[in-house]
Design goal:
By secondary structure, the protein is α/β, with parallel strands linked by helices. It has one domain (about 5-240): 4-Layer Sandwich (Purple Acid Phosphatase, chain A, domain 2), CATH 3.60.21.10. About 40% of the residues lie in helices and about 20% in strands. It has helices at about 15-30, 55-70, 85-90, 125-130, 135-140, 145-165, 170, 175-185, 240, and strands at about 5, 35-40, 75, 95, 100-105, 110, 190-195, 200-205, 210-215, 225-230, 230-235. Strands 4-3-2-1-10-11 form a six-stranded mixed beta sheet. It has a five-stranded mixed beta sheet with strand order 5-6-7-9-8, covered by helices on one side. The radius of gyration is 17 Å and the shape is globular. It binds manganese (II) ion. Manganese (II) ion (MN) binds near residues 8, 40, 41 and 116.
Length: about 240
């Protein structure tokens, strides 16, 4: 049984080639009954389950087809698409993961998360996150007309992009102490996340034992994914996976 991990696809109408690529991947996932873990920011911006504009509807349908045909699909909430609600879950058949979720991967306890919670040195972002992830705030936002949400969403994205450019590289990355404490808390030796768009594998020591942190890449450029099968894990591009 194989598991495929992807993150930060940031699908939008601006990048139709990536939408097509992901739909092809879903067809393969469906065919081979692979467990697919989407670790956040599948969409560049999700403003509510009632937004059927391209590529939302297309992706939701493709996810639904794959799960109805027996593939297991798990979705973590990213900072761009944390507003998935019941309609999304029903139509896609996807299971939404908790902020931190522990799974067993080749009998190794593995922690999954989007990754934004680990960037604890970005205090301004963590404050912003607490506000927008507050259930009352989200409920209020989702009750606004879609047109307004699009306006606010677009403005917020612009603002975030501007402030991101001002922040140093180290603020934007995960905090190693936070990684150690969270992995320790959940008693895991492997952590898989995205969000930082800095793909790679980091090996370190945790409670006198080797531990690993695998960072998935984004789909703006490289489109790296992680495939885990009985004979271990390997990083590969979407094209390599389809080949
Ligand atoms: Mn993110």
């Amino acid at each position: 049984m194989s598991s495929l991990f992807v993150s930060d696809l940031h699908l939008s109408h601006e990048r139709r080639d990536k939408v097509d690529l992901f739909v092809k991947i879903l067809a393969r996932v469906q065919e081979q009954k692979i467990s697919l873990y989407i670790l956040g920011d599948l969409f560049d911006l999700w403003l509510g389950d009632d937004d059927d504009a391209y590529p939302n509807k297309e992706i939701v349908e493709a996810l639904g087809n794959a799960s109805r045909d027996g593939a297991s699909i798990y979705v973590a909430l990213g900072n761009r698409d944390f507003l998935f609600r019941e309609v999304f879950k029903r139509k896609t058949g996807a299971r939404v993961l908790d902020d931190y979720t522990v799974i067993e991967l080749n009998s190794e306890k593995t922690l999954l998360t989007h990754g934004d919670l680990l960037c604890t040195r970005d205090i301004a972002y963590q404050k912003f996150r607490r506000v927008v992830r507050n259930p009352l705030f989200s409920a209020f936002f989702l009750a606004l007309p879609l047109k307004w949400r699009k306006k606010i969403g677009g403005k917020t994205r612009e603002k975030t992009q501007n402030s991101t450019q001002m922040k140093t590289n180290s603020i934007m990355d995960v905090d190693h102490q936070t990684v150690l404490s969270v992995m320790g808390k959940y008693d895991t030796s492997l952590l898989i996340h995205g969000h930082t768009h800095r793909p790679g594998t980091h090996v370190f020591e945790l409670n006198n034992a080797p531990a690993r942190r695998i960072v998935l890449g984004d789909w703006y450029s490289q489109g790296l994914m992680l495939l885990c099968s009985d004979d271990g894990e390997k990083s590969l591009t979407a094209e390599e996976f389809l080949a």
